[in-house]
Design a protein that fits this description.
The protein is mostly helical. It contains 9 helices and no strands. Helix 2 runs antiparallel to helix 3, helix 4 packs across helix 6 and helix 4 runs antiparallel to helix 8. The longest helix has 36 residues.
């Protein structure tokens, strides 16, 4: 196999932890769905998917070469990624954190704008940028060869996880918003669970050594 099952499982876990935590994509998709309906949410999700594919193509095309030429940059970005995951963990558990399922007032937009806003929201999402620049390459193993192909397959794995979970948010946004509004305890459980997952991933990434790290030494 070009990529190991452990690497696929690892990037899937990272992707799941990040997509389950509140961020620009979740907030936009849920808010748009609650305001304008599921169809609008799915069109917006199409724009988010296009943004993911742009990141996958960019990661496949150039990140490996850059990290090989500048090992110090790899280390700096790795630590930045771990730090950002810790920040996300804090945002999930800090007192007074807002739920992404809280209703927000948004204007009614046509399909073209919905798609474009989904695309722009994802491209400007710091969580996704950190994922592709700092975290994704760490799961590639140069000993297997075809590092660019590994990054492509791992990126597509993350995209599949992210789109599946985001589609669930869109399809269930209204029901979840009503459920959580009546049950504040569940909101706290969700926040602390996601904070724990993200914090654990941050420690693992910051202290661990992977095949991709060896590739730039």
């Amino acid at each position: 196999m070009v990529v190991s099952l452990a690497a696929v499982a690892g990037i899937a876990a990272v992707g799941l932890g990040m997509v389950m935590s509140p961020g620009p994509n979740m907030i936009y998709l849920v808010s748009r769905t609650i305001t304008q309906g599921r169809r609008a949410g799915m069109i917006s999700l199409g724009g988010v998917a296009a943004g993911f594919m742009i990141y996958v193509c960019a990661a496949t095309a150039g990140l490996t070469a850059v990290f090989t030429l500048v090992p110090a940059l790899y280390t700096a970005i790795k630590l930045a990624g771990a730090g950002y995951l810790l920040w996300l963990a804090w945002q999930a558990v800090r007192p007074g954190g807002a739920s992404p399922f809280a209703p927000r007032e948004l204007p009614v937009d046509p399909p073209r704008r919905l798609f474009t806003m989904g695309l722009v929201t994802n491209l400007l999402n710091p969580k996704i940028a950190i994922l592709y620049v700092s975290l994704l390459p760490q799961f590639a193993d140069p000993e297997r060869g075809h590092v660019a192909l590994q990054i492509l397959l791992l990126g597509l794995t993350q995209v599949a996880v992210a789109l599946t979970v985001n589609a669930v948010w869109v399809l269930s946004a209204g029901a979840l918003a009503a459920f959580l509004a009546r049950r504040p305890l569940w909101q706290r459980v969700q926040r602390y669970a996601m904070g724990t997952v993200l914090g654990g991933l941050a420690v693992h990434i910051g202290l661990g050594h992977t095949g991709a790290a060896a590739a730039v030494r």
